[in-house]
Amino acid sequence: MASTNPLANLFGKSPFKGLQIHMRAVLDCVHEIPILFEALAAGDQEKVIATKDKIFEHESKADQIKNEMRGALPKSLFMPVDRRDLLEVLQMQDSIADTAQDIAGMLVERRMGVPEFMRNPMKDLVLRCIDACEQSAKVIEELDELLAMGFRGREATLVEEMVEALNLIEDETDDLGIDLTRILFEHEDEVKPVSVMMWYQLIEWIGDLADYSEKVGDRLRLLIAR
Fold it and tell me: What are the residue ranges in the chain where pLDDT is below 50?
């Protein structure tokens, strides 16, 4: 009997197809994050809520793809890559979408405004973290070519270079996050104590978008090394 799971037939062509489809849904989540903070800075609560709804919708789609992929992924010993490795990459990708959802949820659960002193550094941090997500997605999109080349040669070198670039972007997000946290604490007397803690948590979560993206790349690097 033919499988009703639309992902099931893809794995015969490439074990990476499901990862690529899932990562595209994850990117749909994170691409709403800059819009979310722009609306927040503008005091447009209606748009904040509408953007939150979009993020939740994209995250739900990513979850559906994740669950379908887990059910469709063959348990065959003859796969070109270990099933556990694919599932670990999938989990890291899913953590990016989950984090985007956490950020959006908090900004709706507690109505917040962006203090003037945080606006530009916050924007810089958000955009650079999105760059990290996009770079990890580019690596994922290269995996079919990498498989065709037997995980070696020029394509393997290209993927290694892309992962290295991803690591450098993540390093930059760490620095931006530290700078923004320092600015927050320098002005903490101007903000309610609860808001200080909420912003501290949000800065951590924004940084997590890049951290999980880097982990996707690092996990793929280990996969190639095998």
Answer: 1-3, 8, 11-12, 77-78
Name the token pair of 222: 């280990």
Token code pair at residue 193: 């104590």
Q: Any idea what the CATH number is for the domain that residue 219 is in?
A: 1.20.58.220
Q: How far is CA 66 from the centre of its chain?
A: 14
Residue 2 lies in a domain: no
| 215 within some domain | yes
Tally of domains within the chain: 1
User: Which range of residues forms the domain containing residue 200?
Assistant: 11-225
List Cα–Cα distances, 32 to 52, 55, 111, 171, in angstroms: 8, 6, 18, 23
State how far the Cα of 69 lies from the Cα of 6, in Å rounded to an integer: 9
pTM of the predicted model as reported, rounded to 2 decimal places: 0.89
Q: Which residue has the tokens 């953007």?
A: 51
